[in-house]
Each structure stands twice: as C-alpha cells, then as structure tokens.
C-alpha cells in the first residue's frame, strides 16, 4: 500500500552498469508486471526495492519519501525469490513464521496467521516438512506464503509461478490477483510469460538492457508496440517482420509492393500471424507447413518476401500443404517500424499488395 | 513342464551358469578387497591392540610377551571368522547369527587364554599420586622418583587447554570466515593467500621468538599463554575451512532473512550459522584433538608441574618408569587416548559429511 518511484536510479556492479538510469512510477495498490529477456535487470530492480542492493545513483521513493538508505528489514517488503530462498533448516511452518518473529506479533495470532497463509497457497498439509522434502512448485507456494504472512506494503514476485503445472498455475494466477485486489498491496510481478503478464497485471513494463522499453496496458504493448523489440518479444507465435524500402507511396520488398502513403526510407513491416487471413487477393504464396496448435492452426507460407506465419481459427486445416494462397490483412492492424532506430512509425498504414489490374 | 525356448538363436544361453559365474567373480573381487584392507590395517590396529592388552596385563618387573601372542591368537581368527561370515551369509539374520556365534567363541577363548593375566593394577596412577615411588619400591628402588602432580590435575589442564583453544578458534574462525566469504574489502585476496602460507610454516621454527614474546608479556608458564600460541597457529587453517563452508551457503536465504525483518546479526545467527554446523563441528573436533595432543609448546612454555597437561604427564611417566614398569606407561597411554576416541566416535557422523559441506545451492 505504497506508491513507488524510481528517479533516474542507477546500478553498477564493479565497472558494469547493469541499470543505466531507471525512471518509473508505480501507483498505490497497482499490480504491474515486469517483462523482459533474461539478464535485463528485473531481479536487480526488485532487489533495490527490497533494500538488498543499494542503488549506485538516483533516488528511490516510497510514498514520496526517499528510501535509498532505509534498511531492508524496515521496508516491509515481501519478496518471493526466483530461487525460493526457503530456510533449509526449518520446516514449512517455521519458514512461514519467520517474518513474524521480528514483528513482535503475539504468539497465538502469529500461529493463526501462519495457518491461514499456508491454507491460502494450499500447503496446509505440508507444515512439518523440510524444504528439501518439497517439490519445486510446493517450495514456490511456501515462499509465497512467507511473503504474504507479514502483510507487506509492497509485494515483489520474482517469477513465482514458473515451476507450477498448468492447472495450478491458472488457479494461482487468479488467486494472486484476487488476493492482491483484496489486500490492495502494491505488487510487482516479474515474469517471462507474457500471458501471465497480460492476464494478471494492470500495467506491463517491458525492460531491455536495464532500461524501460515501454510501459502500458497489456493491449498497448500488443497492438501498439513502441519498438521492433517489443513487437518481437510479445505475442506468440511471433510477429512476421518484413524489411523493405519506402518510396513513391509504397514499401518495396524485392519485386513485391505494399502500398503505403507518406513514408520514406528503410522500414520494417510487422504483421501479427493472427491478423492475417487467406483471401482472394493479397500477398501471393504457397503453403509450406501446417502446424495444428489446438484450437488454432499455424500455416507457414512461402512467399516472395520470405516465410510468413498465418494463424487461423478452427481445429481442422482448411488448406493443404503446397496450395497456392493469397494473404490479406487490414491496413490498420499492420505495424510499420523505421529500420534504423527500430521505433514504431505512429499512424502509418500499410496495405497488402494487390494483383496488377 | 515343458521349457519354451526364449531365443531363436541356435546356441542355447545358459543363464544360470552366467549368473553363477558373475556371483563367483563378485565374491573373488570382494575377498581380494577385504584381504587387502586387512593387510594394510593390521600395522595400524596392532599397536593400539597391544597397548590396551599391555595396559591391562603387564606386571611390574616382569617382561612377559606371551600374553600378547595369546591375545592375537584370539583376535586374528575372530576377525577372519567375522569376515567369512559376512561373505558367506545370504541374509541379514544369518549374518547376525554368525556374528553371535563368532563372538561367543571369541569370548570363551579370550576368557580362558587371556583372562587370567588381566588386572587393573597398572591404573594405580589414577588413585595414587606418588605412584612412581610405589612402583619403584616393588623392584627395590627407593629414591629418585619424579614428583608427579595428580593425573586428574593434568587431565583438567588438558581439558582447559584444548577446550578454551577450541572455543576461541571456532568463534574467531566462524566470524572471520563469514566476513571473508561475504564481503569485499581491499586486501582480501592477499589475505586469503597469506592464510594458507601461514599454515605452511613448521611451528618449531618460531619456538624461540614465541618463548621470548611470552616471557616479555608475562605469560610464560601459564596455560593461557600456550592457549594463545595454539590459537594463533590453528586459526589460519580453521578460517580457511570455515570460509569454504560459508561460500556454500546461498546468498538468497540471507537476503530473504533481511527482508523478513532480521538484522544482519540475526540473519547470521538464525539463518546462516545453522547451515554450517557441520563445518563448526569439524573445526571443533580437529582443534580439540590438536590441543589435546599438543606437546611441543607445552613442553617449552610450561614449567611448573601443576601446569602439566596430559601429554607432559605421559612424557614424564615414560621418562621415569619406563625401565621399571611399561605396564603403567601403557595404562597412562590408554587413559590419555580415551577422550580422543570418545570425541571421534561422537562426532564421526558429522565428520563423514564434511566433504559435502553446507547447503545445496
Ligand atoms: N551480484 C552481481 N554482480 C555482478 N553482476 C550482476 C550481479 N547480479 C546481477 N548481475 C548482472 O546484472 C544483469 C541483470 O541481472 P538480473 O538478475 O537483474 O537479470 P534478470 O532480468 O532478473 O534475469 P532473469 O530473467 O534471467 O532472472 C545481468 O547481466 C547479470 O549478469
Ligand atoms: Mg531474475
């Protein structure tokens, strides 16, 4: 229940600048997801929030107060470590109880809260076990219970669901989310799973190389990715990227022409597989591969501009390999990036190629 | 019952014969291994066995070695019999039964062959302070015996020496090892290197300067002085060992403790220290034994006989009565040996885990 602000926060390890200047505000009670490739500084940012790492520069504020030098134990931050970090010499009960031992919680109340936290994450029957006697998923849930039991003002979750099976992950997702809403605790969730990020969080922060690439609602990131990097990182199967040169009101890719007004220079066209459909006219190609994906079917189409992935609804393939097809799309759903700086060109339209009349 | 051929190959495989052959190969290999182990362990075990036998059987002024051979006559067949039982027995029950039979036969043989020679007379030093004179008088020597302190006094001194040395070494090594493992500070690498180099010096080389130092600070002929010297020599290696154990403790549980509201000290005591109990036990046992066995420094730095430790007591007993009664010398040896054995026996479960060390990361 605190707002968080990073003001130009820098983190160096020796000579390596891992975070070169982070600016970010997270509101009171907000649930944000931190998304980004491995090694981009997600855990490091969380550790600075928790007070484990001291920022090398800049200011970190909770509720507008500078906390750079406040000790970890005084910050009241609950954290679930990527590696769980359960205490190996204590059983599950004592692990969950540990934070309460320093809060002067009355004994009876502490025991009740431990029980409640354990029930919440379904580890009520495991209280007597040592961490080494638990599965990875169970350890993760114990870590979550330990972070929640002290009713923190900020909850930091470093990939808390990565080791759960699909069903449990789904239930835990909803449970964490409803719990977060109920407690109103400001929460940051680190994840590699974009579906997790987009379903659970109010806002998604996409990081890259220690900086923030884009902040926005899940829809923003999906429909209006600020850069090629985000377009490629978010969405599965990945976006189709076609490089070309824009001149004379069209993007030229080899001999193929995508009509597009008002743009010049080297550009990259981004086409989401789920925004593409087969039609009577459009980009010509031949189906090379068919991959059934449950309720959708992914076609890999061999075209003059390279392989293009097309995702169609339906459980049975309506087309067969080797078939000649035309790929069509709506100009508003196509993305156009400038190749030189990889940024989105806002408001630009690209149309599918048309058969010469 | 008809047998159905399992394979279509023309040559019938005789599985039973293959299994028999594997069994025999296995047994032969195990036998060879045991034979080797027995061969190398006899020179190690035999002196201890004889030490105990002499302590309980030798009599003043009589140089008799027959009992040693008679006891061997009991021991060696017993060991071989145990080994054969272990080899031949098909299941645990039969093996235990076999051991019981061997033990019974051994006991009977021991009582008849060795039993009559056994007595506790050599342990006279436990109750008689001036046992040297008593022993000498048995062979007609009346004068010239060394003035011995009570053996319990020496025993207590040894306990104090080894115990306080251990406590200091373990405390300092834990704190220093933790600091070296976790914190970066200028000069850390040279410090680590020098820790090992320090251990490489033969302690004898420093004995004269040490003597002078103790003399000038007035700790010569005090147990405390020797304790300090021992601690100084023991510490580098102990620190190094403890640093290794702390290195194996993952950082994240410590960080987790800090965010859970623990102070640095609480995190160290409640979370980190329990992960290195094996290391602490190992360092304690080795320092204690080192202090218990210490001879050179106590010999050089302690003078009054009320300051004698067990090793000095042992030395002077050997010096004084060896020619008269090696039974008493052996009995003192057995008495000196017992605490080390008890300690090892109690701690061996932990010492065995030493190579594993720490927590899995
Ligand atoms: N203690 C440290 N000393 C030196 N470099 C470090 C340290 N901790 C992290 N780094 C570096 O900082 C960068 C960011 O690390 P961080 O752990 O924050 O990544 P991450 O985004 O959490 O990745 P992942 O998704 O794989 O967990 C990495 O390049 C890493 O090598
Ligand atoms: Mg991480």
From TrEMBL, chain A:
SUPFAM superfamilies per UniProt: MOP-like, P-loop containing nucleoside triphosphate hydrolases
Domain ABC transporter, chain residue ranges per copy: 4-234
Cross-referenced InterPro entries: AAA+_ATPase, ABC_transporter-like_ATP-bd, ABC_transporter-like_CS, ABC_transpr_MalK-like, ABC_transpr_MalK/UgpC-like, Mo/tungstate-bd_C_term_dom, NA-bd_OB-fold, P-loop_NTPase
PROSITE patterns referenced in this protein's UniProt entry, alphabetically: ABC_TRANSPORTER_1, ABC_TRANSPORTER_2
A single GO molecular function term of this UniProt record: ATP binding
Alphabetical UniProt keywords: ATP-binding, Nucleotide-binding, Transport
Highest taxon of source: Bacteria
CDD domains, per database record: ABC_MalK_N
Stretches assigned to coiled coil: none
SMART domains: AAA (SM00382)
PANTHER family xref list: MALTODEXTRIN IMPORT ATP-BINDING PROTEIN MSMX, OSMOPROTECTIVE COMPOUNDS UPTAKE ATP-BINDING PROTEIN GGTA
Similarity comment: family membership: Belongs to the ABC transporter superfamily.
Record-given protein name: ABC transporter ATP-binding protein
Lineage: Bacteria, Pseudomonadati, Pseudomonadota, Alphaproteobacteria, Hyphomicrobiales
TrEMBL record, chain B:
Principal location listed in the UniProt entry: membrane
Keywords associated with the record: Cell membrane, Membrane, Sugar transport, Transmembrane, Transmembrane helix, Transport
Subcellular location(s) of the protein: Cell membrane
Membrane topology: Multi-pass membrane protein
Transmembrane helix in keyword set: yes
Residue ranges of every copy of the ABC transmembrane type-1 domain listed in the record: 155-347
TM region(s), chain numbering: 33-56, 68-89, 96-118, 159-180, 192-217, 223-246, 267-289, 328-347
Pfam families found in the cross-reference section: BPD_transp_1 (PF00528)
Function: Part of the ABC transporter complex MalEFGK involved in maltose/maltodextrin import. Probably responsible for the translocation of the substrate across the membrane.
Family statement: Belongs to the binding-protein-dependent transport system permease family. MalFG subfamily.
Name of protein: Maltose/maltodextrin transport system permease protein MalG
Organism: Chelativorans salis
Lineage: Bacteria, Pseudomonadati, Pseudomonadota, Alphaproteobacteria, Hyphomicrobiales
